[in-house]
Amino acid sequence: MESVGIVLQRGENNSISALLKADIEITSGQLFLIEDGSKKTVVRLDEYSYINEFFDEKAPFSKTLLNDKIDVELLHMNTVIKAEMSIVKRYNHSSVPKPGSIVKLLPEIKDEKDLLSFYQIPSLQGYIEYGRLAGSKIPLLLDLNAITMHIGIFGETGSGKSYNMRYLITLLSNIKLGDKLTAIPMIIIDANGDYSDFTSFNIDLISGGRGWIKKYVMRDTLSDAEVRLSIDLSLFTAKDLADFIISLKYGDSAPNSLQSNLLEQVLLQHDPQEYNWLLGSREGIEALKTELEELKTSGFSPSTIRAVNSSLEVFYGKVKKYNLVSSSSSINEQTLDVIWNTKGLGIIDFSSDGSPGVDISTKQLIVSYIARLILDYLTKSKYSGKQKLLALVIEEAQNYIPSSDYPVNARITKDVLVTLATQGRKFGVSLFLVSQRPAFVDKYVLSMLNTFFFHRIYHEDVKYVMSATGGLPEHLSKSLPSLDTGYVIVSGLMSALRSPALVKIPWDDRIGSYAGYVSDIESILVG
Ligand SMILES: Nc1ncnc2c1ncn2[C@@H]1O[C@H](COP(=O)(O)OP(=O)(O)OP(=O)(O)O)[C@@H](O)[C@H]1O
């Protein structure tokens, strides 16, 4: 490969300063190869600036130049890039390249053998090829063995998160195993209908390794690919349900604990199997009200009882509208068995098309239910001696695991998702948290994630995310607010590089054909 620069000096902590030719295209996060004699080292460009030996602000000659018409060509002479780089990988040596070592672009990879030797791994088994390392044709290998260490995908609106998630899903749906295709069993909480086409006209993008693909909706179904969503309340504790139901009337502030305790006491008198009938049918609600009325004699004030009654009505109004509650819920343990056995994909469509008019608290109840279901299912499997694996993708994660700064009450989801994040990896849960405002996602949960895809993120979010994740070296994190769409910095355990690197996500029209993207506005307008 062509030489593009020379090492100037080596610094502390594996850092290297180099001069690079000014006429090559470079970006922070890009990787280069350094040759020090026969010793090869891969380095990452962390920071750079263009300098010109000819230009000195203070020199009288420069001053005249600045005042007169500038001769650009003259100024451009002797321009070089001063680059700060850090070592990512060494090939069978442990030294730091000496001053004078040659900097090159990454090598060409002609075949699988080249790829294996670039990454220094014995086989591609268990890896998927993701995007291309910026400035090269080398795919980044992602290690599927680290998938249960959880993943964060962060980027501001329009930075390419949804496209990236779709791309990842297509990769995770077509995993080569010998001459067979398999897939990671997965449930997606689809906030905006970005994956709807995976159950219809783009099904072949993801059906390679999957035997079952369904979309759950909260309206009448329109095709065989759709299932009407219902959940089983017996999976919740009396306390969780009581807090949730009472807080429906109080919005974001803490639920009234007296009312919550009262409702919990009444629910505790019943078997959890009865919760669906009690809270999901008119007769059940009336039965609960009668039981509450009887408690007047035990010292509960009529106003507390009245308040609980009215919270119950609010709750019942919600579940009745969507027929949401049933002991034979449409997503249950058997569904997870099917998803596991067929390496299936279940899409929970929370878009305005799939779940028209559904509010955030109802969505939280559903996400909480699914998280409990997954945890129960995988824990049982593990204890019966069979390790399974299921990925749960949660878009708009800040609505389910908010930080203390984010004004959303998420009691019903937060605890169970924290448990999934901390315990889940033992049982085979792989969490994918997607958010445009990672600063509003709970810090503790962020610290549980081990692989990150950083798209362009808001300046205000950078500090929070970096302190919560320990994700990137400082120089590189500074480049995040100006990252181009289609580029992502990948860091963490799944990356075969084990060090952050900039990756270009290839564009594919079909992966790009989803809700957030209009491919040809003129033809749509003209018809
Ligand atoms: N890899 C890519 N290469 C080229 N263009 C891309 C790429 N990824 C995304 N884009 C462009 O950027 C647009 C926005 O991408 P995307 O919808 O994925 O952003 P987002 O971060 O999910 O935004 P939001 O948070 O609003 O959903 C796409 O419609 C597409 O035009």
Automatic annotation (TrEMBL):
Q: Reaction catalysed by this chain?
A: Couples ATP hydrolysis with the unwinding of duplex DNA by translocating in the 3'-5' direction; ATP + H2O = ADP + phosphate + H(+)
Task: Write down the Pfam families for this protein, in alphabetical order.
Answer: DUF87
InterPro entries for this protein: HerA-like, HerA_central, P-loop_NTPase
Question: What are the recorded GO MF terms, alphabetically?
Answer: 3'-5' DNA helicase activity; 5'-3' DNA helicase activity; ATP binding
Keywords, comma-separated and alphabetical: ATP-binding, Nucleotide-binding
Q: Which domain of life is it from?
A: Archaea
Residues covered by the Helicase HerA central domain: 128-374
- UniProt key word ATP-binding: yes
PANTHER family, per database record: HELICASE HERA CENTRAL DOMAIN-CONTAINING PROTEIN, HELICASE MJ1565-RELATED
* Family stated for the protein in its record: Belongs to the HerA family.
Please give the name of this protein.
Answer: ATP-binding protein
